[in-house]
Amino acid sequence: MQTLRYWSVRHARGLRRVYDFFSWLAPMLAPVVRSLGPVAAEKLLHPLEQSAKQLLFDCRMCGQCVLSATGMACPMNCAKEMRNGPCGGVRANGHCEVKAEIRCAWVEATEGTKRVASDHLAHPTPLLPAIDQRKRGSSSWIQVIAGRPDPSFQPPVGERITPQSQQSTLEQACRSGRFVVTVEVAPPDSADPEILLARARPFKGLVDAINITDGAGGNCHMSSVAASAILSAHGFAPVYQIACRDRNRIAIQGDILGAAALGVQNILCLTGDDVSQGDHPQAKPVFDLDAVSLLHIARGMCDRGEYASGRKLLTAPDLFIGASANPFVPPFGDRIANLEKKIVAGARFIQTQFCFDLALLEEFMKLVRQRELHQRAHIIVGVGTLSSAKALKWMADHVPGVHIPPALLARIAAATDQKAQAKQICIETIRALANIEGIAGVHVMGHKNEDVLAEIIAESDLRRHARLRCS
Questions:
Q1: pLDDT tens, 260-269?
Q2: Cα 230–182–395 angle (5° rounding)?
Q3: What residue spans in the chain does CATH classification 3.20.20.220 cover?
Q4: pTM of the model
């Protein structure tokens, strides 16, 4: 089945022409479908559609077919059922983060889209809505015959401007033009908030915001929304990370409202890591949304004051909404389209995966500047350190989405004090990033390594860079 799936991607241009012809012809069959009635028409078309699509595309009959927009690669073959582009965990060989034996469905989709249109980067795939679970298993052909529009939603209109007095400190920092500094802190495995506060205190006065991870790596910790609220109550500026892996759209929207009610002003929309590598591999992943559809829903709550259902909110949240990007995994040259899609969907700031390869990042930033994406969202680049070359190599080998050049690993391995060398490389990386046009700041990461991260921020003299940018 996979072989035919790859064949379909290779012949995406021809299959797209067949689809376009069918879309033109299909409405002529509408009188026949009406005379049969919806039940009889479904019984007639469903087995034919399922057989043809399963053979060619390994179709899962989601009832909202988007093959024409995804290079004839079915996005439902994505293990996370992502509808809007690859996750940040694509393996170096282009294979899936969750199912290492198969190619990433979105790597295939990108290849197919290129075959359909050489200027695919100028026209990224449309913003596709989350699956309507009621339509699973139903015929999409009936909808084409009925002349229904493509299943895409409209992006938010215009730039959202929050009055300065209501802006979060992170938004104020981004809008000031100075070099922004954020840091990542993992919530504790404890019901005692003091442990979380102890992890946050080294960064008091050093950073503009503190990211609180949401079950990072598929591991269980104190909830991100609760930890963010605790930090907010104690004078810190949290970024509440929301992973789509664990909750459906009902729970996520409720958590967004709850976070805003408790003083949280920044959120980061993520698809989420695979559960199989975490401490609860037996858990059921949800993935009701992906990061792009979550962005669109969050912006709808803020901008239109309504739930995804269209029901009105009594009081809309006012949030600084961000997303993640990973320039360091395949398809390298095409990651820019996924970034643009997130910005179109409503991301106002972007935080990237760990940057250990400056050359690769600079190539990515050239594309960012060409498309002027840095003028539409604030690009904050992830940096970090671990204690040894062995630890870094383990991360590169076992954490999909992390790319570390062999030369960097060799430099750390050859050092007498590997921890100090890794720290020095991080400082050098930060200083280099501060001089790349379009980069708004850095996001510093390192699991349970708060003291070292605080030292890195202080020794990088990031506040001096902030002053220079503002002068």
A1: 999 999 999 9
A2: 100
A3: 164-470
A4: 0.93
Question: Which string of b and e fits 88-109 if b means at least 16 CB within 10 Å?
Answer: bbbbeebbbbbeeeebbbbbbb
CB 342 within 8 A of CB 408: no
Report which of 466, 468, 471 is spatially closest to residue 205, judged by C-alpha positions. 466
Q: Where is 443: in which H helix or E strand?
A: strand 439-445
Residues 205, 181 contacting (CB under 8 angstroms)? no
Q: How many CA atoms lie within 13 A of 291 on its CB side?
A: 27
| Torsions phi, psi for 386 (to 5 deg) | -130, 175
Partner residues linked to 211 by β-bridges: 184, 239
Tokens 């008091």 map to which residue? 204
Please name the residues in contact with 450: beta carbons below 8 A apart, sequence gap of 6 or more. Answer: 185, 199, 200, 202, 203
d(CA 63, CA 136): 5
pLDDT digits 0-9 by tens, 364-406 = 999 999 999 999 999 999 999 888 899 999 988 888 789 999 9
Task: For the domain covering 164-470, report its CATH number.
Answer: 3.20.20.220
pLDDT at 122 (0 to 100) = 47
Task: Answer yes or no: are the C-beta atoms of 237 and 168 closer than 8 Å.
Answer: yes
